[in-house]
Specification:
With about 280 residues, the chain is α/β, with parallel strands linked by helices. It is built from 10 helices and 7 strands. Strand 3, helix 5 (about 130-135) and strand 4 form a beta-alpha-beta unit. The chain is globular and about 60 Å long. The two termini are about 30 Å apart.
């Protein structure tokens, strides 16, 4: 937002200004997508998982194996825009911070895919099907309960984005970072369609250029942050476990196959098109 405002004020002073009204303190997190759909707010930046019930195909962005720019180049953004206009009364500007992957963390050493079978792994809807396919026993808990669940032995591990387990302190009660990373955190930037459509074309162009520059900056920073995060977890006492090449392929194939299967059950038309575009 800061970059967009600065660019707008420099090129077209006083014409348009973006005002940040806050996050969950202004509107409860789960209510934000509905606020956008109703036109209560003009913009939304957050995970597609929070409105997957309204627009299931929008959540396929977690399964993308492309960068944000590549998604735009292959035409995926145009499909996401159609989805959001149809179901959320919004236009899809793009995704930010989309290169942070998910990872499995355990208390005991897990050296093969086979050894995941029978483990009690804290889960969310995002990777529930994947865990079941691995033969694990998914345990659904709130994020705030994960520390205690690990500490008390209620779960043997959990899945979570790589960049945010240390703030929760979960590295204190788990010992291993297991296997390859998978999926990705992705936060779409949306604008209420009527607001976007009435903006002058030159303002739209500045906003899209600001987004493009921000994506480049964030993606470059994220690559370094990921490398650093593995290092920080090791310094905190965690061990990085790599699978054999065969097991790594098996694990990743299962992750994406089950992920897409789950998405196709909820919506098949847009999902089938997107799978062809954003898979490798």
């Amino acid at each position: 937002m800061k970059r967009a405002n600065e660019m707008l004020q420099k090129k077209y002073p006083g014409e348009v200004q973006i005002k940040y009204i806050g996050g969950s303190e202004a509107i409860p997190t789960r209510d934000q997508p509905e606020a956008l759909r109703a036109g209560t707010v003009d913009m939304y930046y957050g995970t597609a998982a929070y409105y997957a019930g309204i627009a299931p195909a929008a959540n396929t962005v977690k399964l993308s194996q492309l960068t944000s720019q590549e998604e735009k180049d292959v035409g995926a953004d145009a499909i996401y825009d159609e989805i959001h206009r149809n179901l959320l009364n919004s236009t899809y500007l793009g995704a930010l911070g989309s290169q942070v992957p998910f990872q499995l963390y355990t208390k005991e050493k897990v050296a093969t895919v086979e050894q995941i079978k029978g483990l009690r792994i804290r889960s969310s809807a995002m990777y529930l099907d994947f865990l079941k396919a691995l033969g694990a026993n998914p345990v659904v808990t709130k994020p705030g309960d994960i520390y205690q669940a690990l500490e008390r032995g209620v779960v043997d591990g959990f899945m979570w984005p790589l960049d945010s387990i240390r703030p929760w302190g979960w590295h204190e009660v788990s010992k291993f970072v297991v296997g390859p990373s998978f999926y990705k955190v992705s936060h779409p930037l949306l604008m209420y369609a009527k607001t976007w459509d009435k903006l002058p074309k030159h303002v739209q162009e500045v906003l899209m250029e600001a987004l493009r520059l921000e994506v480049i900056a964030i993606d470059a920073r994220t690559v370094e942050d990921i490398k650093n995060e593995y290092k920080l977890l090791q310094e905190a006492g965690m061990e990085i476990i790599k699978f054999s090449p065969a097991d790594e392929k098996k694990y990743l194939d299962m992750a994406y196959e089950e992920g897409w299967k789950g998405q196709l059950k909820m919506e098949s038309d847009f999902t089938s098109k997107l799978r062809k575009l954003i898979s490798k």
